[in-house]
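Hey,

The postdoc asked me to send both predictions to you directly instead of through the lab channel. I've kept everything plain text so nothing gets mangled by the mail client. Protein one:
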Amino acid sequence: MQVLFRRRRVEEDLSAELEAFESMLVDRYLKQDLSLEEARRKARLELEGLEQIKEQVRDVRMATTLQSLSQDIRFAARTLFRSPGFTAVAILTLALGIGVNTAIFSVVYAILLRPLPYDHPKQLALIWSKLEKTALSRAPASGPIWSEIVHRNNLLSDVAGIWIGNGTFTGDANPEQVKLAFVTPNFPGLLGFRPELGRIFVPAEESFGGRWAIMLSHGVWQRRYGGDPAIIGKTVSISGGSATVVGILPPDFRLYFSDNVPAEVGAMVPFGDDLSKRPADLYFLRLLARLKPGVTAEQAQADLNQVAGQIRSQYTELNAENLSFDLAPLQRDAVREVRPALIALFSGAGFVLLICCLNVANLLLARASSRGREIAVRSALGASRSRILRQVLLEGLVLCTVAGAAGVLLGWAGVHALMSIRPDYLAHMPEVGINWPVLAFVAGLSFASVLLCALAPSIESSKTDINITLREAGRTSQPSLRRGMRAVLIVGEITLGLVLLIGAGLMIRTLQNIQAVQPGFEAQHLLTFEIDLSTYRRQARINFVQEWESKLASLPGVASVGAVSHLPLDDYPNWYSPYRPQGMTPTQASGLLADHRASTPGYLQAMGAKLLEGRFFDAQDRAAGRQVVLVDDLLANSAWPGQSAIGKQIEVEHVTNQGFVPLWSEVVGVVEHIRNHSLSKKVRGEIYIPYEQSPREHLSFAVRARLDPLALAGTIRAELLRRDHNMALSKVRPMTAYVQRATAPVRFIAVLAGAFAGLALLLAAIGIYGVVSYSVSRRMHEMGVRMALGATSSEILRLVMREAMGLASVGILLGTAAAFFVSRTLRTLIYGISAIDPATYSLAIVVVAAAAFLGCWRPAAQAAAANPVDALRSE
């Protein structure tokens, strides 16, 4: 072992030994009346070279060491497999802990650690606009802002923009609506991916007014065009126009963005107009930048700060907003919302492995105690402490190696189980699996498990006194359970188990609270779908929606119908804008933002929204009528605290033929706030505008059904094709699907945390049972003496229970203190409760105490029921 782990010391000893031997030869030749130089020469000739001798010694020592190591490994394997019950339990326990960590790490690596599948992904970063007056720190940019950054920056090699809209492929009997990525022509080149067929966009396709160039997704290419490679250069019909196919996106192409940018798009097209000519304060464009080689994010951020100052000086409206920029590395920003949850799950899996290691350490410790006489005999026969320590470590190595292999198999099964219940943020991660980085992690984990499992028995073995052990000659007395390494291990298991249980309790309570949230609408019996109206002009769009709503309302089984520009809990890019209540100056109203929704008269009723004051929209709220709006109670209470909002005037942004224009409108109703973004928080107040007064190209319909809502889907799709054969439905799903998707991340964490906690609790109870049972079996002589001297069964029962529950109490106290600090890191994940929720802590403590009680009751009862004569005779 010294050759392997103390090589420098061994080499120094070898050099000193050879130098001493050389000195002895020199002295011998000096006695033969040779000169000092001649004596040294003859000594070196006799030795035939110091370095050659060193190599020979090294070879012999290494061969001996490796042979000895091989013998010890074979002996450890034979020893373990002579106890199949012990070995099976230890391997299964460790494999369970390693398997859980393998599965979770596979997800963590795929989402948090694996480089994004783009060219030099570390150079990619998002540029977010920060608008001080409106308190927005992650706002998109406008076309002029993008253009100014491109021309003014010094440290970015390229800057591109993207916006997600809808498009409908037509030209046959089955039109298909898809998510359409509108991009600046340099966007594909900036990402650096290779198209499956064809090419990416070229700068010439930035010319405006010509035919679109389009890159199809692999899925659309296969579904609609049969994977025909001759599609390159041909035209396809889309959204009432035509586009020339220049390339096919790779099969695994995805957009790893956050904030309303879907991972998968059906096609990619360049913008059809000059973005630099759009309003400077029309924020819709997501900006992606590539840093120049060797440039750090901090340097690029400093450069962008200077660019922001130059832009503010040129655009008055941007100066009023005090525009600045935030550069966020794409790899980090894409996972910013899921990182806390995954780190929490990974930590929980680590706690499970620690408990497994503590259990196996207890087993090895008990095994080492039962082999105390064997170890003493080996020591008496000349085995060194390092050799015995090595033997203990090698037994742990054999166990953990086999457990690691079994853990990989369990981890593989665990990955498939995780993917079956994955929420949306894992749905687009098909590369989650067992790969080389995961296997390297398992190898490191197995080695760490060796150290953790073998540490306790190694320490105990090193304390063995040969004389005392041999003199006892089979006596089975053992110190009290309260003392020694076993006490530390029991306390550690209880502490870790309680921390996991409290964390799981907080997440389960969070899930219950979120599921109990009133979202402001009734999701049951509600069918939703989207249509794309971009091929219709303004008035034709209004007419179509009126007629289509009337037709839907007349279908059998339909109770009510309505439409809105942005459906609650959907991932469609949000529409939020400033507003100004009457009586406020523009300066006073600066910073006021609200979500804007264009809706038809029947939408809020179909959604089951609650009217608090005034009225809903009706047939009189036409395009040519007076401008009216509805607001939610969040905005009404903020704008007019303690007053009625009905009849108040408010300046709201409308969609007109001239673009987005602020118009004064009258508030005719107040509705209860609808949680459009998240079930766990209210983001902004909401303003509803009659659809005819602010028509949008994208529209989501809500159909309240009397029976199963999905039963209407086929009828609605057929009716739409009869009305317009170039129009298609998309995202046809019940509203409950959106609610379930909103709760899926919390449900995912709660399920896994609950599983971890249950497993930890079971392992802790088994660990306590094993330790107490072994301790009692080793102390039967003591119990027999106590009972022979008059101790009653109840006193023996209380003795064992007092010792075991005393350790459990220490573990509970330490676990409560540890959970107090650990649970504070879960603040961003929990909802509706405190991180130190008393009910959760109390219940967890009771459950852990009950598990500990059950774990030690049976061995304590066995000790109390023992016959003192038999106990003494066994000695």
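Protein two:
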Amino acid sequence: MKGSFRTGFFLLASILCGWSTSWIAGCSTAPDLESIAVTPPLSTVAKGLNQQFTAVGTFRGGITKDLTATVTWASTDTTVATVSNTAGSVGLATAIESGSTRIRASLKGVDGVVDFTVGPAIITSIAVTPANQTFPQNFPVQLIATGTFSDKSSQDVTSTVTWSSSQTDFASISSGGVATGQGQGTSSIQAALGGVQGATNINITSATLVGLVVSPQNPSIADTGVTLQFAANARFSDGSSLDATSVASWASSNTQIASIDSAAVARSLAIGAQTAGFSSIQAVLGTATGVSILTVTNHAGNGFAGVFTQRNDIGRTGQNINETILTPANVNSTSFGKVFSQPVDGNLYAQPLYVPNVSITGKGTHNVIYVATENDSVYAFDADNDTGSNANPLWQVSLVDAAHGAGPGARPVNSAGDVVCYVIDPHYGITSTPVIDPSAGTIYVEAISKENGVYFHRLHALDITTGLERSQSPVVIRATVPGTGDGSVNGMIAFNPARHTNRPGLLLVNGSVYVAFASTGCDQRPFHGWIFAFDSVTLSQQAVLNTTPNGEDGGIWMAGAGIAADSNANIFLATGNGTFDTTNIPATQLGDSILKLSLNGNRFLLLDYFSPFNQGVLDTEDSDLGSGGVLLLPGQQGPYPNELVEAGKSLKTYVIDRDQMTTNNLHNCLTNCDNEDPQIVQESSAAGVMFSAPAFWNNNIYLWGSGSVVKSFSVSNGVITLTGQASSNTSIQFPGANVVISANGTSNAIVWAVDGTHNRPLDGVATGPSVLYAFDATDVAILLYTSNQAANNRDIAGGSNKFVVPTIANGRIYIGTQAELDVYGLLATAAAAVKK
């Protein structure tokens, strides 16, 4: 009876007091809490997940009550798990790290405790990338599976998931996640792990792989363990492209210079005492191959490796920033001058090229300077002196003999009797600057000749140690394309070797040699702009483009400046006056335009282009946009990281975004143009008429226009300051001059140029010697040196040729003239002081 009474009393008291989580005032006695039970009693939770705990109290008399929100919660090891006392999440434990702890609920000295175990994180979702993409047939694509885990972490699980394809007739998938299209159609590719699945749809097209581009193109690193990441981009017949870095096979042609692993990371090796070494980095996928020439320089040297192409690099910047000998302090008529010259058999219009440490059979190792003449000869000279055995060429070859592919009676083209054009006089032979592959020891040269009344253009690949032709060399340059333009026959236009000259410097990029043509110089029709691509190993013709197949002219000459390319092997050039198509987009006639092209299998793709609003006027007045060369600016800050600069006869200098050449693809402004081209980044008349290419150094651009002075413009965040520019006080007449820069990094910079205005009487200027100029690059008003300063004609150069580009290498300046290679440098006393 007592127990029943006591229980009943307790219940009555509870009702009267209305207790739940606190005692009502006036109720002087609280019920007794005897125990707390925490549930679940045993639990294991994956790292990152949560567990809700509940506390139930048992009171005197066997009464139970949910005390979850009343108790104080705690974890004995908060590195393993924590438990919340915050309203809304009371009793919620969070698994922090694998291990064990105890979860405690406490109230008025009574505890309830359970063991809590935290296990490893478990996968909760899988993402497969690339997501919902279109791929060509027979192209292996590496898919990536990324797992997200219970602890919010993510991890590449490509190698641990189970892969499957919903439609194996359309796409297969390997255990490593490589998908390959089998036929046109769509398939879902799944990745499964731990009961979790992710998927992506892939659509397979009929496009085929036509090329592989390695980037960066032609980089330079120091020796002894420096690494560089390469990439491969696959190009397809429909114009699309995909990253192929992980599925291509990688190799280095010279493992004594650099290695490359399967992830496309190249590593330089120690190269000993030599100043530089070279390796061809190759990516192969199926039948497609991409190539980049890696230069490795001695870490103890100045970083200079040579001059292998016109204006020093494929961007045509004209800068050598590894010149440590020549400075504004020692380039003057007291310390600097003409140190020697070498006679040659014809005019030198091509820029001299320089390769160090060349082993010449029977003559030892030399730093070699290579020159090519309008008499169709190529010379290799010792670059350092003309004493002793070096007084003669290391080798000399004629490209109009049988050993170099010419037929009986072959000779250079005569300017008077053959083409009746005296722009180049007395012969047309080798006009463009060759290009050298130092990793293969090959120099590529384009030459024109006449054989028994027939004209031939040939591309030669010569061994730089002997001058002998490589296997498959030379090849005759010929092509026929559809077109109804000038010179067409039955809807086809054939390349006419008698009406065309290769003046732009050759380009070697991604294993292809590019050769471009304009008229002979006197605009004798029919002519067009032509560009050819040749495989650098086999010399097989890969592609050809005519710029005006249904029109006329549009030549590619650029005053001899080289065809430019970016590090992704996109090609940039400017055309001369000619037919332009304002009807079709993309245009099919491309006179007076700046073009962005890519090699796509056996054809050129026109990726983008720009033509000035007044193109029709330029064409009528023979004011070629393409009388000047294209400069690709090094990467810039700001909204336009990749830009080009070009100027021609039109009095305008154009600054263009290479990634999107015109806003909204307004390639040619036709209305509301307001005497300018609003769809490009900038344009200005500050530079004047140009028959040369701009140069770049340390965020400055340098130009020397026709009938003008050297000018420099600063560049900041991709914007050129076109007012208040620095300028020299030295003016020269037509055609102005090409400028190049020597510097030691960002110091001791000098602007170099050759005055070639005294070229021929037809220009209205008396013939005379070339003049070498040097200006302080930080202030071009400061003239440091001219080759006609010194007494007794000590430094006088050979006869003048226009468009000449000087070559700077290891304290020497090499310039081509009418009958000799002239070499300038520090005079004996000054040179000895520098060596000390």
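Summary for protein two, as requested: The chain has three helices and 69 strands.

Thanks,
C.
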